[in-house]
Amino acid sequence: MPTAVKISDDLVKKAKIKSKVFKRSVAGQIEYWASIGQLVEDNPDLPLPFLHEIMTAKEQIKAGTGTPYVFGEGE
Questions:
Q1: Which residues in the chain come in under a pLDDT of 70?
Q2: Distance of CA 33 to CAs 14, 40, 45, 60, Å?
Q3: CA geometry: angle 40, 29, 24, nearest 5 deg
Q4: What is the pTM of this model?
Q5: 21 lies in a domain?
Q6: Cα distance between residue 36 and residue 51, in whole Å
Q7: Count of the separate structural domains present in the chain
Q8: Number of helical H runs and strand E runs in the chain
Q9: With 45 labelled, which of 29, 36, 52, 55 sits at a CA distance of 20 to 30 A?
Q10: How many beta carbons lie within 10 A of that of residue 29, not counting itself?
């Protein structure tokens, strides 16, 4: 269920720019930033590019285009 929140005009302006670049809605861009922030807080020892790779891989699996990693295989 959507919930209205107050955010700064500056954040909205920045989100509008990035949302056009990445073909997202403004709300989608802010949700993306929030998900990245949550991932970083939950995994402070992992670098951001690695977290991006994980997110990409998860979406590839959902879309049926990725290959899940199975621990212990290939060793």
A1: 74-75
A2: 11, 11, 19, 20
A3: 135
A4: 0.73
A5: yes
A6: 8
A7: 1
A8: 3, 0
A9: 29
A10: 22
